[in-house]
Amino acid sequence: MADEILTPRDLNRILLARQMLLAREAISPVEAISRLFAIQAQLPRASFIGLWARLSGFGREDLLAAIHDRKVVRSTFLRGTLHLATAEDILAFRTTVMPALDITLPGGGRPPPALIDQAMRLAERHFAPGPKDFESVRQVFAEARIEDVRQMAWGVRVWLPLVQAASNTPYGHEPGGAFTLVKTWLGEDEAPRPDPQGLVRRYLAAHGPSLPADVAGWSGLKGAAALLETMGDELVTFRDEKKRVLYDLKDAPRPSGETPAPVRLLADFDGAVLNRADRTGIVRPQHVKLVASKNLIVSPTVLVDGVVVGTWRAEAKRKTTTVAIRLFEAVGAKPRSAIEAEAVSAAKFLAPETQAVVTFEEA
User: Fold this and answer.
1) In angstroms, how far is CA 314 from the centroid of its own chain?
2) 24: helix, strand or coil
């Protein structure tokens, strides 16, 4: 029997459903983060905006409580970037997503294994007692005459199991911040054995149906196509309009492409936009460069009918919070009104004591 063909609109609506963007859901921040597996936290505020777009009745204090209770943690995780994930998932999957020791570090070059071992031992002793910033470990390396301190400090971020300590700041973590070992912060070591099939299941639950390239790009796993094949009858397959094979969990929700999609304002680096290799189902090809800059900064985006139509930014000054909407294309009166309502809601979420002002930069 031939695989069912899923149109771009079908795939768009399925993705929105998995990402909790067809309707805001009444679940806790911890449960939401678990369903998404992890949310981007390059900017501490982005995690809060990402959950505001997905959850009903969500307040900043809900996520702050989970951060300070150590139920969710900020850590260098997927693709060597900062994410917010549940403590349970950090412990279970960090070994799986950790990049190989033979990767090329920023600036080029692959340090010899003996140098890596020396740097990791020094860094582990340094961060084990409690939270410290990365400038302090650079000083440790310099005193030990470690070659290329900057490169090895970057290596520590991705190879050593570290989490950022919570702080009494508006979004629970400060840029930069202080880090300590997973075991010091959570009381347990990370799982010693990788679980690539478990990681694939979690990806498909949040992003499927997916190409092997989607899985590889998100997870960093090598041989994603072969790995999917090993999962056999656990998965079902579909085809996209280019006849490419898509893999998915058998019982995952797959709403029709005719399902209505509400207007949403998404956060910087939002996974709904970022976590598929082929983003054309949610970002039109001519708009990709307007969303992601050359230095890989992914702007907060505006969704209309499930597709990115612009970007937005919010700036609080004294008594007002201005939300500036930059549209890539013309939108009708009804979606424009919905964008404005979402923008007002975003302003009230970010700075409830201020008056919301919404501006539009037209296409």
Assistant:
1) 20
2) coil
**Are 126 and 152 a contacting pair, CB within 8 Å?**
no
pLDDT at residue 1 is higher than 60: no
Is omega for the bond preceding 209 within 30 degrees of 0, making it cis? yes
Helices 29-36 and 44-52, axial angle in degrees (round to 10):
100
The torsion of the CA quartet 108, 132, 172, 189, rounded to 10 degrees, works out to 80
Q: What percent of the chain has pLDDT over 90?
A: 75
Q: Dmax of the chain from CA atoms?
A: 66
Instruction: Indicate the SS3 state at residue 309.
Output: strand
The backbone torsions φ and ψ at residue 82, rounded to the nearest 5 degrees and listed phi first, read: -75, 130
| Residues present in the chain in total | 363
pLDDT at 363: 67
How many Cβ atoms from other residues are within 10 Å of residue 287's Cβ? 19
**Pick from 181, 182, 186, 189: which is nearest to 126 by CA?**
181
Residues 6 or more apart whose Cβ sits within 8 Å of residue 243: none
Is the CB of residue 73 less than 8 Å from the CB of residue 85?
A: yes
Residues contacting residue 285 through CB under 8 Å, at least 6 positions apart: none
Per-residue model confidence as pLDDT tens digits over 35-52? 999 999 989 999 999 999
Give CA–CA dist 116/140, Å, rounded: 14
**How many Cβ atoms sit within 10 Å of the Cβ of residue 315?**
13
Three-state SS at 303: strand
pLDDT average, residue stretch 54-62? 96
